[in-house]
Design brief:
The protein has 247 residues and is mostly helical. The protein is built from twelve helices and no strands.
Length: 247
């Protein structure tokens, strides 16, 4: 049926086709006979996001997934960033700092698996109305769609797991909460409790790690989407090749 409609369109376009070059004619014929259905576009986007999110979660939900990737590595909260410039003035400061950053990243790595079921639910909800707009959008249009439809649910799922992970003894038998508290206490003590430089009053570490963890997760999903759109090697199924191969 689709092929019959395509042929009919070609016949109706004969006056236009007569003025086309051979290359233009081939392009029109190929487009007419190989056009994507709404269902194929939606299925292709769902498959691309399933592949991209599975890969991203797998990358981050392992030892050093966050910690050894500078693009997503989680550093100190903004209120504690002054520590970087004072670290040499804090006894044992460099080791405390390194252990704190490592522990925060371990907590994010531990929590990353919470994303999978939430992503699956959002991906299933992609509609035909969304389909072509996402397909013809920017290289990370599907990722932005996913972010707008999952961020709140992901935050709600991540934050308790992050908070729990921050309390686990992950580095040298100490938790991220403990190493962070030790770092801040050492900084404040070295400052003579605010005499030499301002004291640090800490905010919620779980909120900071959750937000940074999710930012890194969507960065990775976006990278995977770009690969699928641009790199034939990343189009690992026939459907992905059909939907994205002509992009």
């Amino acid at each position: 049926m689709k092929r019959t409609i395509a042929i009919a369109l070609i016949i109706l376009s004969v006056p236009f086709l007569n003025s086309c070059t051979k290359e233009q004619l081939n392009e029109v014929l190929q487009t007419a006979t190989q056009s994507l259905s709404n269902e194929e576009v939606v299925a292709g986007l769902r498959e691309a996001l399933n592949v991209g999110t599975d890969t991203s979660v797998s990358i981050l939900n392992k030892v050093d997934g966050y910690f050894k990737d500078e693009a997503v590595k989680i550093l100190l909260p903004s209120e504690a960033e002054v520590v970087y410039s004072r670290i040499t003035q804090i006894p044992g400061g460099t080791e405390l700092l390194n252990n704190t950053i490592l522990a925060m990243n371990r907590a994010a790595e531990d929590a990353a698996s919470e994303a999978k079921p939430i992503f699956v639910n959002a991906i299933t909800g992609i509609t035909i109305a969304d389909g072509f707009a996402i397909l013809n959008g920017a290289d990370t249009a599907a990722t932005q769609y996913l972010k707008s439809n999952t961020f709140n649910a992901l935050y709600d799922a991540f934050e308790p797991k992050i908070n729990n992970s921050l309390s686990k003894p992950m580095v040298l038998g100490l938790s991220a909460q403990t190493t962070y508290a030790n770092l801040i206490d050492a900084y404040n003590l070295a400052s003579l409790n605010g005499v030499l430089w301002p004291r640090i009053t800490t905010n919620s570490l779980s909120e900071h790690v959750t937000n940074k963890g999710l930012k890194g997760l969507f960065l990775k999903v976006g990278e995977q989407e770009k690969k699928i759109r641009q790199d034939p090697v990343a189009q690992v199924t026939d459907l992905l090749k059909k939907v994205f191969g002509k992009k």
